Amino acid sequence: MQTEENKEVQILMVQPSYGQKLWNYINFIMIKTFANKFRNADEAFQYWYQCIEHYGQDFAGTKALFNIGFEMNKPNENHIRQSWRKWNWDYAEAEWQWYLSGDQNIKKLGELYGKVPAIWKRMANKLGQVNSNYGYQWERYQQLDKVIEMLRRNPDTRQATISIYDGKEMNQYEYDTPCTYAVQFTVVNNRLNMCVTMRSNDLWYGFCNDQYCFARLQQMVSEETDYELGSYFHFAHNLHLYNKDLGKFLSTKEKGPAQSRADEYGW
Protein backbone atom coordinates (compact mmCIF):
# COMPACT_ATOMS: atom_id res chain seq x y z
CA MET A 1 0.00 0.00 0.00
CA GLN A 2 1.34 3.42 -1.01
CA THR A 3 1.79 5.93 1.80
CA GLU A 4 1.25 9.67 1.53
CA GLU A 5 5.01 10.19 1.88
CA ASN A 6 5.69 7.91 -1.10
CA LYS A 7 3.14 9.80 -3.17
CA GLU A 8 4.87 13.11 -2.38
CA VAL A 9 8.23 11.66 -3.42
CA GLN A 10 6.76 10.47 -6.73
CA ILE A 11 5.20 13.87 -7.40
CA LEU A 12 8.53 15.56 -6.74
CA MET A 13 10.19 13.13 -9.12
CA VAL A 14 7.64 13.88 -11.84
CA GLN A 15 7.78 17.67 -11.48
CA PRO A 16 11.46 18.09 -12.48
CA SER A 17 10.82 15.86 -15.50
CA TYR A 18 7.87 17.99 -16.64
CA GLY A 19 9.74 21.21 -15.91
CA GLN A 20 12.74 20.03 -17.90
CA LYS A 21 10.52 19.17 -20.87
CA LEU A 22 8.86 22.57 -20.69
CA TRP A 23 12.23 24.33 -20.51
CA ASN A 24 13.51 22.35 -23.48
CA TYR A 25 10.39 23.31 -25.43
CA ILE A 26 10.87 27.00 -24.59
CA ASN A 27 14.50 26.78 -25.69
CA PHE A 28 13.41 25.14 -28.95
CA ILE A 29 10.98 27.98 -29.67
CA MET A 30 13.60 30.61 -28.87
CA ILE A 31 16.21 28.95 -31.07
CA LYS A 32 13.83 28.64 -34.01
CA THR A 33 12.53 32.22 -33.73
CA PHE A 34 14.40 34.74 -35.88
CA ALA A 35 15.59 38.02 -34.38
CA ASN A 36 13.46 41.00 -35.35
CA LYS A 37 15.20 44.05 -33.90
CA PHE A 38 18.44 45.60 -35.12
CA ARG A 39 20.34 48.83 -34.65
CA ASN A 40 20.74 49.54 -38.37
CA ALA A 41 20.59 48.15 -41.90
CA ASP A 42 24.17 46.83 -41.86
CA GLU A 43 23.45 44.71 -38.80
CA ALA A 44 20.19 43.45 -40.33
CA PHE A 45 21.85 42.64 -43.65
CA GLN A 46 24.58 40.54 -42.07
CA TYR A 47 22.10 38.66 -39.87
CA TRP A 48 19.58 37.89 -42.62
CA TYR A 49 22.31 36.86 -45.05
CA GLN A 50 23.37 34.10 -42.68
CA CYS A 51 19.77 33.11 -41.88
CA ILE A 52 18.87 32.76 -45.55
CA GLU A 53 22.04 30.82 -46.29
CA HIS A 54 21.41 28.35 -43.45
CA TYR A 55 17.60 28.16 -43.26
CA GLY A 56 16.35 29.39 -46.64
CA GLN A 57 14.20 27.19 -48.84
CA ASP A 58 15.10 26.54 -52.46
CA PHE A 59 12.72 28.70 -54.49
CA ALA A 60 12.97 29.71 -58.16
CA GLY A 61 16.76 29.97 -58.33
CA THR A 62 17.07 31.45 -54.85
CA LYS A 63 17.17 30.53 -51.20
CA ALA A 64 14.23 32.27 -49.55
CA LEU A 65 12.61 32.97 -46.20
CA PHE A 66 8.92 33.83 -46.11
CA ASN A 67 6.94 36.46 -44.21
CA ILE A 68 9.91 38.12 -42.53
CA GLY A 69 9.54 41.30 -40.50
CA PHE A 70 12.05 43.29 -38.47
CA GLU A 71 12.80 46.71 -37.00
CA MET A 72 15.82 48.97 -37.48
CA ASN A 73 16.16 51.53 -34.69
CA LYS A 74 18.59 53.86 -36.47
CA PRO A 75 17.32 54.30 -40.06
CA ASN A 76 19.74 57.19 -40.57
CA GLU A 77 22.58 54.64 -40.31
CA ASN A 78 21.74 53.34 -43.77
CA HIS A 79 25.15 52.38 -45.19
CA ILE A 80 26.05 48.71 -45.70
CA ARG A 81 29.56 48.46 -44.28
CA GLN A 82 30.37 44.77 -44.70
CA SER A 83 33.59 44.69 -46.74
CA TRP A 84 32.56 41.47 -48.49
CA ARG A 85 29.38 43.14 -49.78
CA LYS A 86 31.22 46.07 -51.41
CA TRP A 87 28.07 48.15 -51.41
CA ASN A 88 28.13 51.13 -53.75
CA TRP A 89 26.97 54.33 -52.04
CA ASP A 90 27.34 56.31 -55.29
CA TYR A 91 24.73 54.16 -56.98
CA ALA A 92 22.33 54.18 -54.01
CA GLU A 93 22.49 57.98 -53.82
CA ALA A 94 21.95 58.27 -57.59
CA GLU A 95 18.87 56.06 -57.28
CA TRP A 96 17.56 58.25 -54.46
CA GLN A 97 18.07 61.39 -56.55
CA TRP A 98 16.30 59.67 -59.44
CA TYR A 99 13.35 58.97 -57.16
CA LEU A 100 13.29 62.60 -56.07
CA SER A 101 13.14 63.67 -59.72
CA GLY A 102 9.95 61.65 -60.22
CA ASP A 103 11.16 60.85 -63.74
CA GLN A 104 9.95 57.44 -64.90
CA ASN A 105 12.61 57.24 -67.61
CA ILE A 106 15.84 55.33 -67.01
CA LYS A 107 17.75 57.98 -68.98
CA LYS A 108 17.52 60.23 -65.94
CA LEU A 109 19.22 57.58 -63.81
CA GLY A 110 21.95 57.37 -66.46
CA GLU A 111 22.48 61.14 -66.22
CA LEU A 112 22.77 60.95 -62.43
CA TYR A 113 24.94 57.83 -62.19
CA GLY A 114 26.88 57.97 -65.44
CA LYS A 115 25.35 54.79 -66.85
CA VAL A 116 22.16 52.75 -66.76
CA PRO A 117 22.58 49.30 -65.15
CA ALA A 118 21.55 46.45 -67.45
CA ILE A 119 18.71 45.30 -65.22
CA TRP A 120 16.91 48.65 -65.59
CA LYS A 121 17.26 48.40 -69.36
CA ARG A 122 15.52 45.03 -69.28
CA MET A 123 12.75 46.35 -67.06
CA ALA A 124 12.03 49.44 -69.17
CA ASN A 125 9.31 49.61 -71.80
CA LYS A 126 9.86 50.84 -75.35
CA LEU A 127 9.82 54.43 -74.11
CA GLY A 128 12.49 53.72 -71.49
CA GLN A 129 10.00 53.98 -68.63
CA VAL A 130 9.74 51.77 -65.55
CA ASN A 131 7.15 51.31 -62.82
CA SER A 132 9.74 50.84 -60.07
CA ASN A 133 10.88 54.43 -59.77
CA TYR A 134 9.29 54.77 -56.36
CA GLY A 135 9.48 58.55 -56.48
CA TYR A 136 7.30 58.49 -59.57
CA GLN A 137 4.86 56.27 -57.67
CA TRP A 138 4.62 58.42 -54.54
CA GLU A 139 4.09 61.53 -56.65
CA ARG A 140 1.11 59.96 -58.42
CA TYR A 141 -2.09 61.62 -57.17
CA GLN A 142 0.16 63.69 -54.86
CA GLN A 143 0.38 60.76 -52.42
CA LEU A 144 3.48 61.99 -50.60
CA ASP A 145 2.19 65.56 -50.24
CA LYS A 146 -1.10 64.28 -48.84
CA VAL A 147 0.67 61.99 -46.38
CA ILE A 148 2.80 64.86 -45.09
CA GLU A 149 -0.29 67.05 -44.67
CA MET A 150 -2.13 64.25 -42.82
CA LEU A 151 0.73 63.82 -40.40
CA ARG A 152 0.97 67.55 -39.76
CA ARG A 153 -2.75 67.81 -39.02
CA ASN A 154 -3.21 64.64 -37.03
CA PRO A 155 -0.37 62.70 -35.39
CA ASP A 156 -2.82 59.87 -34.60
CA THR A 157 -3.70 59.20 -38.24
CA ARG A 158 -3.69 55.62 -39.50
CA GLN A 159 -4.08 56.75 -43.11
CA ALA A 160 -0.60 58.13 -43.89
CA THR A 161 0.07 55.46 -46.52
CA ILE A 162 1.72 55.48 -49.95
CA SER A 163 0.59 52.76 -52.35
CA ILE A 164 3.12 51.47 -54.89
CA TYR A 165 2.20 48.01 -56.19
CA ASP A 166 -1.41 48.03 -57.38
CA GLY A 167 -3.09 44.79 -58.41
CA LYS A 168 -5.54 46.79 -60.51
CA GLU A 169 -2.63 47.79 -62.75
CA MET A 170 -1.28 44.29 -63.44
CA ASN A 171 -1.75 44.79 -67.16
CA GLN A 172 0.95 47.49 -66.95
CA TYR A 173 3.48 45.16 -65.32
CA GLU A 174 4.63 43.33 -68.44
CA TYR A 175 8.31 44.19 -67.95
CA ASP A 176 8.51 45.66 -64.46
CA THR A 177 6.47 44.67 -61.40
CA PRO A 178 7.16 46.86 -58.34
CA CYS A 179 8.53 44.86 -55.42
CA THR A 180 7.07 47.20 -52.79
CA TYR A 181 3.41 47.10 -51.83
CA ALA A 182 3.23 50.17 -49.63
CA VAL A 183 4.93 52.57 -47.23
CA GLN A 184 3.10 53.73 -44.10
CA PHE A 185 4.03 56.34 -41.50
CA THR A 186 2.87 56.37 -37.88
CA VAL A 187 3.65 58.82 -35.08
CA VAL A 188 4.24 57.23 -31.67
CA ASN A 189 5.44 59.37 -28.75
CA ASN A 190 6.31 62.18 -31.18
CA ARG A 191 8.55 59.83 -33.17
CA LEU A 192 7.88 59.12 -36.85
CA ASN A 193 7.97 55.39 -37.52
CA MET A 194 7.87 53.97 -41.04
CA CYS A 195 6.72 50.56 -42.27
CA VAL A 196 7.73 49.23 -45.70
CA THR A 197 5.86 46.15 -46.94
CA MET A 198 7.27 44.21 -49.90
CA ARG A 199 5.99 41.29 -51.96
CA SER A 200 9.57 40.27 -52.84
CA ASN A 201 12.99 41.48 -51.70
CA ASP A 202 16.43 40.39 -52.90
CA LEU A 203 18.66 40.87 -49.87
CA TRP A 204 21.91 41.35 -51.82
CA TYR A 205 20.91 44.18 -54.13
CA GLY A 206 17.27 45.04 -53.46
CA PHE A 207 17.35 45.42 -49.69
CA CYS A 208 20.68 47.24 -49.57
CA ASN A 209 19.59 49.96 -51.98
CA ASP A 210 15.89 50.01 -51.15
CA GLN A 211 16.46 50.55 -47.44
CA TYR A 212 18.85 53.40 -48.24
CA CYS A 213 16.22 55.19 -50.31
CA PHE A 214 13.33 54.46 -47.94
CA ALA A 215 15.40 55.61 -44.98
CA ARG A 216 16.10 58.85 -46.83
CA LEU A 217 12.35 59.19 -47.45
CA GLN A 218 11.66 58.68 -43.73
CA GLN A 219 14.20 61.34 -42.82
CA MET A 220 12.67 63.75 -45.33
CA VAL A 221 9.13 63.23 -44.03
CA SER A 222 10.40 63.56 -40.45
CA GLU A 223 11.92 66.94 -41.28
CA GLU A 224 8.81 68.09 -43.17
CA THR A 225 6.49 67.19 -40.29
CA ASP A 226 8.80 68.16 -37.42
CA TYR A 227 8.62 64.78 -35.68
CA GLU A 228 11.65 62.98 -34.30
CA LEU A 229 13.02 60.17 -36.43
CA GLY A 230 11.64 56.84 -35.23
CA SER A 231 12.16 53.22 -36.25
CA TYR A 232 12.03 51.70 -39.72
CA PHE A 233 10.00 48.47 -39.91
CA HIS A 234 10.65 46.24 -42.92
CA PHE A 235 8.38 43.37 -44.00
CA ALA A 236 8.99 41.04 -46.93
CA HIS A 237 6.74 38.18 -48.00
CA ASN A 238 9.72 36.65 -49.81
CA LEU A 239 13.21 37.64 -48.61
CA HIS A 240 15.80 35.87 -50.71
CA LEU A 241 19.32 35.53 -52.07
CA TYR A 242 20.01 34.40 -55.62
CA ASN A 243 22.17 31.29 -55.76
CA LYS A 244 25.01 33.31 -57.33
CA ASP A 245 25.15 35.50 -54.24
CA LEU A 246 25.41 32.69 -51.69
CA GLY A 247 28.64 31.69 -49.97
CA LYS A 248 30.18 35.16 -49.78
CA PHE A 249 30.03 35.79 -46.05
CA LEU A 250 33.21 33.79 -45.38
CA SER A 251 35.03 34.87 -48.52
CA THR A 252 38.41 36.44 -47.77
CA LYS A 253 39.59 36.98 -51.31
CA GLU A 254 40.38 40.56 -52.30
CA LYS A 255 38.68 40.10 -55.65
CA GLY A 256 36.38 37.21 -54.87
CA PRO A 257 32.85 36.54 -56.16
CA ALA A 258 31.22 39.30 -54.13
CA GLN A 259 30.51 41.36 -57.24
CA SER A 260 29.61 38.48 -59.56
CA ARG A 261 26.65 40.41 -60.91
CA ALA A 262 28.07 43.91 -60.58
CA ASP A 263 28.57 44.39 -64.31
CA GLU A 264 24.95 43.52 -64.94
CA TYR A 265 23.53 45.64 -62.13
CA GLY A 266 26.12 48.42 -62.12
CA TRP A 267 26.00 48.49 -58.32
Supply the key terms.
alpha/beta; 8-stranded mixed sheet; single chain; 267 residues; Thymidylate Synthase, Chain A; globular; 8 strands; 9 helices
The major sheet is characterized as:
8 strands, mixed
Shape estimate: globular
Overall mean pLDDT stands at 88
Distance between the termini: 80 Å
Total tally of structural domains: 2
Q: Please provide the ordered H/E string of secondary-structure elements.
A: HEHEEHHHHHEEEEHEH
The CATH architecture assignment of the largest domain turns out to be 2-Layer Sandwich
What structural class results from the helix and strand content? alpha/beta
Q: What radius of gyration results from the CA coordinates?
A: 23 Å
Tally of DSSP β-strands: 8
CATH topology of the largest domain: Thymidylate Synthase, Chain A
Helix content percent band: 40-55%
Query: What is the name of the CATH superfamily of the largest domain?
Result: Thymidylate synthase/dCMP hydroxymethylase domain
The DSSP helix count reads 9
According to CATH, what is the class of the largest domain?
Answer: Alpha Beta
> How much beta, percentage-wise?
15-25%
List the uncertain runs: 8-16, 25-32, 251-267
